[in-house]
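#onboarding

Welcome to the new folks! Below is a worked example of what a typical request in this channel looks like: someone posts a single protein sequence, and someone else replies with the predicted structure as tokens. Don't worry about understanding the tokens yet, we'll cover that in week two.

Example request:
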Amino acid sequence: MECRLANEFGFAPAYDAPAPYMESGRIGSIAPNFHGLPSNRSYSVTLESDCPQIVERCEAEAVDAAILVPNCPVCHQSVSLAARRLEEAGIASVILGCAKDIVEYAGVPRFVFSDFPLGNSAGRPFDRASQALTVDLALSLLEAAPAPRTTVQSPLAWSAGADWKLDYCNIERLYPEEVQKERARFDEAKDVARALREGCGEAGGG
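Example response:
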């Protein structure tokens, strides 16, 4: 597959993991920039504002294919919409994700599903072998997907058991002091975001 590859929501090994694929001629090159996509809860904003910008940027860099790597549930919706727009523009796409229900509901062309906690779409953290395998699945799917809306599941498991699914984002399994701590962190993040928005507004108004 001779192509120029873009990576949305870049992940850690994106700079060096594709090197063997370029050396073997499997891909031609990596685009010079990674592109982020805002996680708008409004799909109309995503479709009308964000997706056209992603398409424009990829076209400007002569991208042939894009790997999209979402984080949160809304991210999965956003990149799914972006994948459809990229395909309409003639740019092949593949999503690496952990929220199978959201991505398959959106009807994307190609999807590599990892049965991991959200935030680990590109493989286990700090595990280069896991991440390299996930990239390889993505490239293989770009090369040989048998039909639209093809999902391939990674063979990797997060852990030996499935208990993490009961623990993940389950407030009922947290101690009260843990809930209080997480609530304080969330409120702090909201304060930071509010200050940034207000600062941008003042700068724009000046």
